Amino acid sequence: MKPFSILLIRLLGLYLLLKTLLAILPALLGSNAAELWSGELLPVLLATVGVPAVGGLLLWCFAGRLASRLHGDGDGDGNDGAEAGAHIRDDDLVRAGTFLIGVYLLVRHTGTLVGMYATSGGVAYGDLIVVVASLGMILGGRKLAEVYRRIKYFS
Q: How far is residue 53's CA from residue 76's CA, in Å, rounded to a whole number?
């Protein structure tokens, strides 16, 4: 399960990085690209582009360690040969999926939250709720897998 989680974490990191860079690329190549580097728009640019890009790079670099934290035992390098033919339990998939969705939501909405605060000094309460919920998804993966197991075997 750990190699599968490492692959998914790296794919999520790559997705975050590329989606962010491809979204900003037309603005950087446009005729008024110099406006992006002005004092008013620079904090927004750094928050909305920098946070997801750095988050994607960190996910790519630390995928092995994150998978080890998520699944327990192992050294985190992804070379656990004993798991190559192992059966993947659905609880592990729920835990890994919940973690990845939580990380994605955290990185995307933290950038928006910081960008809004940097420009207007206000708080985007919708994004704040999503950030708190995503932290719950990241830190409470085992509890959510337990709830999933109870619902699955209820009927």
A: 23
